Amino acid sequence: MGLIPDMGGAIAFRELMRQDHTLEMAMTAKVIDCEKAKEYGLVTKIAEDPFARAYELALECINRSPDILAANKKLYHNTWWSTPGRALALETWYQIKVMMGKNQRVAVKRERNPDDKPAYINRQFK
């Protein structure tokens, strides 16, 4: 028994992993362990306690400017498969938008004085 991808799997797999690995998994329906999944590019990290690692990552993110988080997410969603020119143009535009925002000033203050961490305001980046 093998597997035929569903819900865009053929597209997702070609973006994530090599064709020979994709074919092997699809043709054999082989279950793979976490080490093999990492080798194939299907997972980024392996953790003994995935929930704890995810929580640590979330804490790292909430201590960053909400505008930086939103801008990076939007940048990579909009440019991952675009032309280099479009990627560079959006990168520049998003940099300007973030640098002009109030949260950028808060981020600079937080970095300069770790003992005094002013709160970020609600995200302004749209």
- Tell me the total number of β-strands: 0
Proportion of helical residues: 55-70%
Poorly predicted runs: none
Query: Please, how many helices?
Result: 7
**C-alpha termini separation:** 47 Å
Question: Any idea what the radius of gyration is?
Answer: 20 Å
> What composes the largest sheet?
none
Which structural class is indicated by helix and strand composition?
mainly alpha
Global outline: flat
H and E order: HHHHHHH
Whole-number total of structural domains? 2
Mean pLDDT: 91
Strand content: under 5%
List keywords for this structure.
flat; enoyl-CoA hydratase activity; mainly alpha; Enoyl-CoA hydratase; ClpP/crotonase-like_dom_sf; lyase; 126 residues; EC 4.2.1.17
Report on the architecture of this protein.
The protein has 126 residues and is mainly alpha-helical. It is 63% helix and 0% strand. The protein is built from seven helices and no strands. The protein is flat and about 55 Å long. It starts with 8 loop residues before the first helix and ends in a 14-residue tail after the last helix. The mean pLDDT is 91. Its EC number is 4.2.1.17. Residues 107-126 are annotated as: Disordered. InterPro entries: ClpP/crotonase-like_dom_sf.
